[in-house]
Design a protein that fits this description.
306 residues; alpha+beta; Rossmann fold; Elongation Factor Tu (Ef-tu), domain 3; 2 domains; seven-stranded mixed barrel; six-stranded mixed sheet; 6 helices; 24% helix; elongated
Length: 306
């Protein structure tokens, strides 16, 4: 029995090396959990499976755990860049899941570049897959690759389903062994442009109060590359419109000037030179409206040439 097990795991290890081109895969985790022990428990579940099989998982990285609670849109945008910069065989786990316990399926998908995505089928991978392309996707239904106590912890599928799937995948389990193939993944569909201008969403802010939008910086060309852009906060409690100057560098403008500038994520950001745009314009992420088949953020803006 011992030798049989040893041979079995040996075969899986060789298969893992083939799947991931001889290197242990990186595992990245994104959630809306914030601070707490939930992240540690997910990592613990991954490492426990790895230790039992002695495979040697690569590094486990925290992508972001400050996604606004239940905000699939923001989670999707924050996943896009890391996934597009990932290497063949890397694994990403996303747990932004307001529909946990509903009919939505847990899934595992593979991009055309060989990167694996694990999470709920709720649209959180929309923006990454639009750019990376979908190779295939399967449901996570095989009980062999879940925690044994799944039924008693089904309100935390990050621990009972997604983390174990990442661990087993990294040991060489084929994607097709996790469940049934699925063709139609849920997508977030947002209106990006109108006859007047571009409708975009603010998907995050940094420690300086800069407001990151989901509009690629190249899209400003559709407005004629104006020096000033009129920004209307159309979903705001107190709607208002202000001119923002487009600038590559803060040094091009005076202190306190509202700016529209390209951010490190490849999208446009609203900022204030030596100021805090989030506080100045009253933008936060305390609420997002969810309804079946729709997602309407409260921080939607319109950009027009001034």
């Amino acid at each position: 029995m011992f030798n049989l097990l040893g041979n079995k795991f040996g075969r899986i290890k060789r298969r893992s090396q083939n799947l991931f081109k001889g290197k242990p895969p990186l595992i990245g985790i994104l959630t809306d959990f914030g601070n707490g022990n939930a992240i540690f428990r997910m990592k613990q579940a991954i490492l426990k499976i790895d230790r039992l099989r002695n495979f040697g998982i690569g590094q486990i990285h925290d992508i972001d755990h400050d996604v606004p609670p239940q905000n699939i849109l923001v989670g999707g945008w924050r996943l896009k860049k890391p996934i597009l910069e990932a290497e063949f065989g890397d694994i990403f786990v996303a747990v932004v899941d307001p529909g946990v316990g509903s009919s939505r399926k847990p899934i595992i998908a593979r991009t055309k570049s060989g990167v694996y995505l694990i999470g709920p089928n709720n649209g959180v991978f929309t923006f990454a897959l639009e750019s990376a392309g979908l190779d295939c996707a399967y449901t996570l239904e095989n009980p062999e690759f879940r925690r044994p106590d799944f039924s008693s912890s089904s309100n935390f599928e990050g621990l009972s389903v997604f983390a174990p799937a990442a661990a087993y995948l990294s040991t060489g389990i084929g994607i097709e062994e996790f469940g049934n193939r699925i063709e139609d993944l849920v997508k977030i569909i947002l209106p990006y442009s109108t006859t007047k201008g571009a409708i975009v969403d603010i998907d995050g802010l940094n420690q300086f109060g800069n407001l990151r939008t989901n509009l690629p910086k190249e899209s400003l060309e559709s407005l004629g590359n104006p020096e000033f852009v009129k920004v209307s906060f159309v979903n705001h409690t107190h709607s208002f419109t202000l001119p923002f100057r487009f600038a590559q560098w803060y040094a091009e403008t005076e202190l306190g000037t509202p700016l529209l500038n390209p951010g490190s994520s490849g999208t446009l950001e609203l900022s204030v030179n030596c100021g805090n745009a989030a506080k100045r314009f009253g933008v936060d992420f305390s609420h997002v409206n969810l309804a079946p088949g729709t997602l309407e953020p409260n921080n939607r803006i319109m950009l027009e040439a001034a």
